[in-house]
Amino acid sequence: xxxxxILLLVPHPDDExxxxxxxxxxxxxxxxxxxxxxxxxxxxxxxxxxxxRRGGHARLVARRRSEAERAAAALGLTPIGWATRPARFLxxxxxxxxxxxxxxxxxxxxxxxxxxxxxxxxxxxxxxNALGQLFVDEVxxxxxxxxxxxxxxxxxxxxxxxxxxxxxxALSETEREQKRALLRLYASEQQNLSYxxxxxxxxxxxxxxxxxxxxxxxxxxxxxxxxxxFRHPRVDFTRPAExxxxxxxxxxxxxxxxxxxxxRA
Length: 265
Description:
The chain is of the alpha/beta class and about 260 residues long. It has helices at about 15-30, 45-55, 55-75, 95-110, 125-130, 175-185, 240-265; strands spanning about 5-10, 35-40, 80, 110-115, 140-145, 145-150, 155, 165-170, 200-205. The strands form 2 sheets. The chain has a 7-stranded mixed β-sheet, with helices on both faces. Strands 6-7 form a two-stranded antiparallel sheet. Helix 1 packs across helix 6 (about 175-185) and helix 5 runs parallel beside helix 7 (about 240-265). The chain is globular and about 50 Å long. The two termini are about 35 Å apart.
């Protein structure tokens, strides 16, 4: 089920806990080595923060990093990289993110990659899931359900569309308490973590998706407050069509380049 050398691709510090805290513990118990690559700093950009809070950006980034370091220590993760890009920028910087992942894979030689599912919870999660498709031919890739708004209802730790390949872990009471404690470590994000379930975790081999379409019909989780009539910085006004376009354009270029390289070889 779990690999012996696992690379966690963490779009924002706290996703490792939300998605996979108990799974990390069980993989560690089986003797796995786990490495975490943090692909954003988890905070809004300096410009957005300035418009909203008038300063304090560096302090907030440092606080989130400190929380992530304590969570990694508690989980037994080895952090191997801390990206400085803000949240909401991962999906905009797919070439750079792909290169960072490729470097980590070459350096740490994982036999398994863990990443978030394609479920509309966050555009950074969805874009990272798509990048996972570029590694499935060389390493096992597992996707973990976090949260979604499928059917107009908040859902957590469950895929919108099960395909029969899911593994569902029922957390023991000890694991539930440990996960709650880990979530509390991310004090800077407490207002955004109330949706997180601690009863189970759910993962499966990376599915085949049509990234030209949103993960499910209707409103996505990150778009559920876009009705707000002013550009409040706490609301992500990213349009799902923008994310799909960025993903499809990059996957198309990457696959064309890979095919050209193979033909020359």
